[in-house]
Each structure stands twice: as structure tokens, then as C-alpha cells.
Amino acid sequence: MRKLKEFIIEKLILICGLASIFFVVLIFLFLLKEGLAVFKIVSPFKFIFGKSWYPISEPAQLGILPLILGSLLVTFGAAIISIPIGVGCAIYIAEIAPLKIKETLKAGVELLAAIPSVVLGFVGMVTLVPLVKNVFHLPTGLTALSGSIMLAFMAMPTIVSIAEDALYSVPKTYREGALALGATHWQTIWRVMLPAASSGILAAIMLGIGRVIGETMAVMMITGNAAVIPKSIFAPVRTLTATIAAEMGEAVVGSEHYFALFAIGIVLFISSFAINVTADLFLHKRQ
Amino acid sequence: MKNPYRTQNIAFFFLLLATLLIVIPVGLVVVVIIQKGLPAINWQFLSDMPRQGMRAGGIFPAIVGTFYLVTGAILFALPIGLLAAVYLSEYARDNLLTRVIKLAIVNLAGVPSVVYGLFGLALFVIFLKFGASIIAGSLTLGIMILPVIITTSREALESVPQSFREVSLSLGASKWQTIRHIVLPNAIPGILTGTILGLGRAAGETAPILFTVAAFYLPRLPKSIFDQAMALPYHLYVISTQVPNVDEKIRYATAFVLLALVLFMNLVAIIIRTKFRKRKKW
Questions:
Q1: With CB atoms counted within 10 Å of each terminal CB, which end of chain A scores lower, N or C?
Q2: In the predicted model, is pLDDT for residue A265 greater than 60?
Q3: Is the pTM of this model over 0.90?
Q4: Which residues from chain A sit within 8 angstroms of residue B240, using beta carbons?
């Protein structure tokens, strides 16, 4: 009797162990199921490189290039801001900060990761948006730039914590060796620690960027949501994620528009999959 | 030749600057929300229905809705996540299957939240015909927080010393008895931490509930799990972007309640973690 019970429990454990694979596959299958139908109406090439997104006009124009460019522009801006600051902060926490301050700083970064994106979006709306508008004398502060700044803050916790882990796991002997040879603390960091931790830091940056591409609410609230090909970083843009979030509520189930939004979901799923697998390879290389 | 110590001072200054550029804005966000939100909080705001198209009254149904969603998500994710962690920590060998499972967890954690929303809509709302309902939203959120729970629980299980298991097995206990009576009890604080972090994440997410449960304006409490519900994060989104002329005070107060809820959970998780680390004897 006991053996039977344990047999059942162990099988249950195995099934739950496989649950993650099951759910990833399930998500992908359901995106395909609902999204692939759009390619009966437009070719995949036209869908990705089509220059106009007018999903409810007659006939519907389903080109997501403006949205892809919107996502890329905002992500690029966020990367430029968050990579130096994030990696710098990781170095400071891992290498320089005194032990007592270290824990406080880490808690501060964790705090940032914990703030819900809709709260950050709200704060961005009432503080950052007017600031950008006034500083650059723009007609509206709801721009790609505001989105980039906001998203940079959402990427930083990921970058800081993974890069800090990478620096932390460099063997102590490396640092001691360099210091013993008469290198200054900074020379040790720059010439020894950073190269040794480079693949982990690269993974940190990639995962940070992955977070940015997938972020939805904050970006929808402060980028202005104009589904046109962005002309500059000071113009309103709309990202892939924001398009889904903003339009799915109105899309009729089974319509072209509905299929197209799911097809955008496929694009997002594949990008995040590619980013995560690559980052994982980098992290694995280190060990 | 350049003085290496001067270079060092300059470099360290910039690193400190980078750190402050992160920490100070975070502090400001929290301070601003507390400063403007806290004065608008009173019992009536917390316990009343929204009125006049959300321009007055309270946020009670949104609080209740979030409570239901988070409870449902954890009821779904905790058993599966915990058993998955047990599998990875106690049963999995170092082979291809384990590698694929780990990769799947990483990917599950990386799927954009709005894609979870699409998935929940396609599977729970439409395919399984739950409609936009608390159960559809809870299950969507549950799958989303699964990676958090698996990862933290697994760390907790793996930090139980190997010798504990060996002693138990050598006393004649079976593998499951060892897990059930030795490994799990010693890992409870870590599992609890992961669960609470998962709760916090589920409470704050908006995109996954947009199409699966969230009601724009529903000034009554949900009657069953197949009912739509309001939720705090979606409510904040609605009153700050979709409804014109909402009193600033109501927006800040809603943001405050949501932020306080999420930060409170994180704080509890951190406290459990530090207490446990101090008490740990191995």
C-alpha cells in the first residue's frame, strides 16, 4: 500500500517537473492556433515589413513595421541608458561598496524590481512626461524618449542583479593575484574582474533588454501610442506590446484584427525565446 | 605617465554616480506616492464602492478582486511549482531532460506579460469557455508566477544539507518519507519567501488580466469565480489614462494602495529570509 502511494506521488512529482515544458509549448501552440490565420490574409513578409497598421479600415492594412520600429527605438534608447548605469551599479555593489551599504543598495534595487509597472507608468505620466515636454520644448511629452527612460529603469534591476552575481562568482584568487602584482583596485576591476565576468554581464544585458521588449503597461501609458513609423526619438511611438494591450479589448474574436494581434504575440514570443536561450548559453558557458 | 590612483578615483566616482542614479529615483518614486497618496487614504476610500464613473467613492471591489485573483493564482501555482522544485532538487539527474526543463523555466519567466494575457484569452476565456472571469485570470497569473515559485523553492530545497537526507535514508526511511519529513520542513522558510514574492508579482501585474478578467467599471462584488472582477492595477491604469477628470488624489491614493500592498509582501519575504539565515545552524 505504501509502495503504491509513493509510486503515485513520485509520478505526480515527475509530471509537475515537466509542467514548465508543457506550459511553454502550450503557450506557443495557442498563439499559433489563433495567430497563424492572419497569414491567409497577408503574407508573412507583408505582415512584418508592411508600412501601415490600420487594422480596422476596409480593407484592413496589417503591416507591423511601424510597431517593430517603435519597439526597437524605445528598446535601443533604454539600452543606451540602462547598460552603463546598470553595469556601473553592479560593479559598485559587488566590488566597492562597504558591506553595510551593500545590503541597503541591493534592497533598493530589489525594491525597484518589485514596483508594479502600472505604478511606474503612472509616476512617469505625472513626472517624467511633463519634464521631457518642458526640457525639449515639445508639443507633447508622450514620446519614445520618455518610454526609453522609463524602460531603462525597468531593465536596471535585472542587469544589476545578474551582473553582480557574475562579478561575485569570479574566483577570489583572480582578484588577489592582481592586487598582489601591484595593480590598483580599479585596474583589477577593469583588467581582471570585468573580462572574467564578461559572459555573465553579457547575459545580464540581454535579459535586461528582454525585459524591456516585453514590458507593456508603463510603455503604453507614456509613449503616446501613435502607430506610425517613428521619425525621431522625440515623436510618439507605439510598441508591439502596447498594440496588443490597447487593441485586443476592441478586436472581435475571430476577426482579421484579432488574428493579427495574436500574430504579434508570436513575434514577441519568438523574440523573447531567442533572447532567453542565448542568455542562458552565455550563463552556462561561465560555469 | 598617468597616475593610476587618479584614474581610480575618477572611475569610482562614476560608479557611485551610476548607483545613485538608480537608487535616488527609486526613493523619489516611493516618497512621492506616499506623500501624495497617504493623505487621501481613509476608511471610506478602502471600503466603499466607486461612484460617479470612478470619479468619487472608494476602491473596495478592486481590492477584493485583486485578493481573489492572487489567492486563485497561488492555489494553482504553489502545488505545481513546489512539486516541480522537488523534482529538480531531489530526482532530476544531470541530463538533457533536466537541461530542457531549466530552459523552459527561464523562458516561462521571460515571456512578456501581455503574451500571457493573449494565452489566457485563447485558452481559458475562449477555448475552455470560462469567459472573462476570476478563474481565467487566476490561472493565467498562476502560470506566470510558476517560474518564481519553482526557482525560489528549488533554492530552498537545495540548501538543505545533503547529510540530513543521508541520515534519514540510512535510518530506513524511503525517499518520499525523507522528502516529506526531513527536506520539506527544513525548506519551509525559503518556500514561503518564494510564495510571497509570487503573490506580490501576481498582485501588481496588469497585462495578463486585461483580457482575461478585468472589468472596466463594476461597482459590485464578484459573486462567483466565473464572474468578472475589478483589480487594483487595472483600476489604476483605467483611472489614470481612460477616464478624464479624475481627481488627482484618487489616482495617487490608488497607486499608494497598490504599491503598499506589493512592497509589504516583499518586505515580509525579506524579513523571513533574513531571520531564517540568522537562525540556520548549518
A1: N
A2: yes
A3: yes
A4: 121-122, 125, 221
